[in-house]
Fold this sequence. Notes:
Two copies of one chain form a homodimer. By secondary structure, chain A is of the alpha+beta class.
Amino acid sequence: xxxxxxxxxxxLSALISHYDVGDLISAKGIAEGVSNSNWxxxxxxxxxILTMYENRIELSDLPFFLGLxxxxxxxxxxxxxxxxxxxxxxxxxxxxxxxxxxxxxxxxSIDVPTAQQARAVGAALAGLHDHAADFPGQRPNSMGMAExxxxxxxxxxxxxxxxxxxxxxxxxxxxxxxATNWPQDLPRGVIHADLFPDNVLLLGENxxxxxxxxxxxxxxxxxxxxxxxxxxxxxxDGTFRxxxxxxxxxxxxxxRTLSEAEWQAxxxxxxxxxxxxxxxxxxxxxxxxxDALVMRKDPMDFARRLRFYxxxxxxxxxxxx
Amino acid sequence: xxxxxxxxxxxLSALISHYDVGDLISAKGIAEGVSNSNWxxxxxxxxxILTMYENRIELSDLPFFLGLxxxxxxxxxxxxxxxxxxxxxxxxxxxxxxxxxxxxxxxxSIDVPTAQQARAVGAALAGLHDHAADFPGQRPNSMGMAExxxxxxxxxxxxxxxxxxxxxxxxxxxxxxxATNWPQDLPRGVIHADLFPDNVLLLGENxxxxxxxxxxxxxxxxxxxxxxxxxxxxxxDGTFRxxxxxxxxxxxxxxRTLSEAEWQAxxxxxxxxxxxxxxxxxxxxxxxxxDALVMRKDPMDFARRLRFYxxxxxxxxxxxx
Lengths: 321, 321
């Protein structure tokens, strides 16, 4: 969470003048998003989020991300619509950096969800999968199994053992197991792939916004439910929240049916979700100075979730059928 | 500029419930202020800034800062009013940290002012001095000459020379000169003491907000004009902006008269202002890791301004009479 780049008031005003959104009244750099800089912009007509894409976003992916937002919003998902400039462009360049203006959505991110909130999140995720079904864009998952393997290789056995002595063995065993057991031929579609509580805005028990689509891609749809399950169903201390788990899945099922193959695959997909976040967190842990701008996240949080899914995943998901 | 602390949605909602401001709709951590964490809060009734005071603010100073805002706002200065809780308190505690809710003011901070904007800033500063005249609070300047000396001593000759080989000599000579020549017996009152462009909100040519009063104190009033002059009248590359200088002072004079003694003192006060910012920036430069959360500011920017004031200050200020 950071604002990486400074934009002057003159640059902001010049930018805003390319959009039919009135005159600039206020602009505050906000601490949101890890791969870009964001401002909450107020104009004489409305409020908006201005995003400047930093190094971690490929320019060629922007039409997919921004087009997806418009498509989902048109179909009723609570996602921020892209504001197009007077020439119809979804993004503009300031120097070498791309910027986009999107709707401001109300709501706050919560860190300890209620069961009702989890149910609403599950339903919103299924809605997203449903609404994206006829979106023509395609984007490979840049955070798939090949990338997990690459990231762990870059960490090295020595690096992983510095994080936790048990981590190298856990990772090696799990990567081998997942390579053999990863489900094939499940329904594919557009997935969010990173629907952590940070990326959901809630107003009371209702989802008012799904945001930060910068890992969205075309992949196994049920994997997105597994990612969301892994992200939401545990306390800070690692304790499993059965009520959140059950309500998240029941909410999902209220909007989209899971096939028998998807049900069977969920425990495996959840182990994949856990290893995916161990991979990026371990890499960042070893490559980010302890006092840097970006807060490091403990990779072991997801190592504990991985062990949980390996031991109890089948039981937990079966119990929600 | 940072958000140092995370507040959960539950903590935010609990806090907001102590104020008569409606229900929480949105909360965004904003990159504003260097000594505290700030959130832009939207409720069902209005928008507010929530500030959490971090280590650099003394709790015992809060009644002065927050009372001053109310006093200035009551008298017509464009400063954010403090929102008091249902018990009338100007601040509350969350754990060991104090938090306060203040008005949200529109406007953007500009980095390259027009002459007209400089005139408006000068007038707003004089208004502040005028409106604060009957404020009963007192607070010593914690960034006065004794503190400059302490900070430079903490940097050491070796430290200063690492910043620039010429800095130790410049600082030693100037500190000695200022100790002898610092004006006494000038009119005193409440001053902002840090009115950089960052701390002024503008809507077009008008000042819509003066913010960040956390260096405000009781000191020589004309010193505040000198600080503001030093902060506004130079390009990024150090070039003096005569038009900004002249308009800033003319704007000030439109609201408050300078005595003969104040006029005479301005060149000295401006040298003091320059050394004050060299002192804190040099200290921070040597004590902040290059990759830390807070952006370091180059102390040499104000070394150049100091040399300018020493060489041309008398001429520049005399030209504006």
